[in-house]
Specification:
The protein is mostly helical and 64 residues long. It is 84% helix and 0% strand. It has a domain of 43 residues. The longest helix has 28 residues. The chain is elongated. It starts with a helix and ends with a helix.
């Protein structure tokens, strides 16, 4: 196992680290989905496709 993986495994035992890690992951996931949506809007995707992506982001945020 690499040093980084071992360190991450060790840190995940710390609840404060674990919560911070999950919060940051959620933030980055939402940011990525919004960037993807912006690209689709700029690319003049069909409205029903855009609405589907917005619905997907809403579901993700509700479960985060």
């Amino acid at each position: 196992m690499s040093i980084a993986r071992e360190y991450l495994k060790q840190q995940m035992g710390n609840t404060l680290f674990q919560q911070s890690f999950l919060n940051e992951k959620t933030r980055l996931d939402i940011e990525y989905q919004l960037e993807e949506l912006k690209r689709d809007i700029a690319g003049y995707r069909p409205v029903n496709e855009l609405i589907g992506k917005i619905d997907q982001i809403e579901r993700f945020v509700q479960h985060a």
